[in-house]
Specification:
Blueprint: E1 3-8, H1 13-25, E2 29-35, E3 55-59, H2 65-75, E4 79-82, H3 89-94, H4 96-120, E5 130-136, H5 161-180, E6 184-189, E7 191-193, H6 202-212, E8 216-219, E9 228-230, H7 231-244, E10 250-253, H8 261-275, E11 288-291, H9 306-312, H10 320-333, H11 335-343, H12 347-355
Parallel strand pairs: 1-2, 1-4, 2-3, 4-5, 5-6, 6-10, 7-9, 8-11
């Protein structure tokens, strides 16, 4: 069955990788990408698409209701995969209002547009429609070392403005299913890494700083524990849930690993040493610099993938070591991408603002 898929935030990190993945793996889809092209979204991410004739791009805001109504009607959208969101915790601490606008009001507006298209105007049979909402494990809060992993029934305890805004959007999605019968699904994922991630996030920041001999800023003692998910594995999980997951259900998605952040940084340094043994910066671990921790920094995340594994047969294909190697190689081989996305954004000023005034 041909699907007409609206991908919101499709010029961002996970969204663009999803567009590439879907065009590469499913010949029956046609994709409309909607992205506001804020600092983290770039048309560079949508270059060299597989079968680009099945893809169209629209620059716009998910809070623009008139635009959404037109997109649904003109493209007979039957599937929404909703990535569009502000996602950086540090930025949410500095400017929480932007997160409320995009993550809460934007999601609400998108839900209203889908409700009108599918339940009122009935542009497609409702049993063929799906609104898939991509969320985060950060809505669950933090764990001690002794507590069991997050799972779908874990109570929400968001601890940052970012996590609170995503928790709110999750609640709206569930409410639209229960109240109106909108066919929805939700996935809560762990930390993603891989190609095309905006360099303010931990993994690309460490790769790019290490390659140029800049300090590698590690918050606090570096012992914050995270689960790390390679982005292509996440894309596969999302499409599995959107097409075969139960309507109204939530699925947790993770990489099935829980290293502390400092181990991630050291792994990147070791890979850099292997790939660039003659670098004047080797061994790259000497660039590690401990800086003051951010406010309310969650100590540990861990996530169970039992449900998606048992119901849908999904599990990550990439080990952390292989995924991290592939990621480092991609960044080193794409300097033109790095130059484009950092030059045409507030990247430099943001890094200065966030790191330069921190003391170890």
């Amino acid at each position: 069955m041909t699907r007409n898929v609206l991908v919101t935030g499709g010029a961002g990190f996970i969204g663009s990788n999803f567009v590439h993945y879907l065009l590469r793996t499913d010949p029956e889809v046609r994709i409309v990408t909607l992205d506001a092209l804020t600092y983290a979204g770039s048309l560079e991410n949508l270059k060299d698409l597989p079968d680009p004739a099945r893809h169209s791009f629209i620059q716009g805001d998910i809070a623009d209701r008139a635009l959404l109504d037109r997109i649904f009607t003109e493209n007979t959208i039957d599937t929404v995969v909703h990535f569009a969101a502000e996602t950086h915790v540090d930025r949410s601490i500095h400017d929480p209002g932007v997160f409320v606008q995009t993550n809460v009001l934007g999601t609400f507006t998108l839900l209203e547009a889908a409700r009108k298209a599918w339940l009122v105007d009935k542009i497609v049979p409702v049993e063929q429609a799906r609104f898939h909402h991509v969320s985060t494990d950060e809505v669950f809060g933090t764990l001690t070392r002794e507590e069991p992993p997050f799972e779908e029934s874990t109570p929400y305890q968001p601890r940052s403005p970012y996590a609170a805004s995503k928790a709110s959007s999750d609640h709206f999605v569930r409410a639209y299913h229960i109240t109106y019968g909108l066919p929805v699904s939700i996935s809560n994922c762990s930390n993603n890494y891989g190609p095309r991630q905006f360099p303010e996030k931990l993994v690309p920041l460490m790769i790019l700083n290490a390659s140029s001999g800049k300090p590698l800023p590690v918050y606090g003692d570096g012992m914050q524990i995270r689960d790390w998910l390679y982005v292509d594995d996440h894309c596969e999980a999302i499409w599995q849930v959107a097409t075969h997951g139960q309507v109204g259900e939530t699925y947790c998605v993770g990489g099935d690993n829980q290293p502390p952040n400092i181990e991630i940084v050291r792994t990147i340094c070791q890979i850099m040493d292997e790939l660039q043994p003659r670098s004047v910066w080797a061994p790259h671990e000497k660039l590690i610099s401990y800086v003051a921790d951010r406010p309310g920094h969650d100590r540990r995340y861990d996530i169970s993938i039992s449900k998606i594994k048992n119901e849908l047969g999904w599990q990550p294909r990439h080990s952390l070591k292989q995924g991290m190697l592939d990621t480092v190689v991609w960044y080193l081989e794409h300097p033109e991408w790095v130059q484009s996305v950092t030059h045409n954004s507030d990247y430099s000023s943001w890094v200065q603002k966030n790191y330069n005034n921190r003391k170890g």
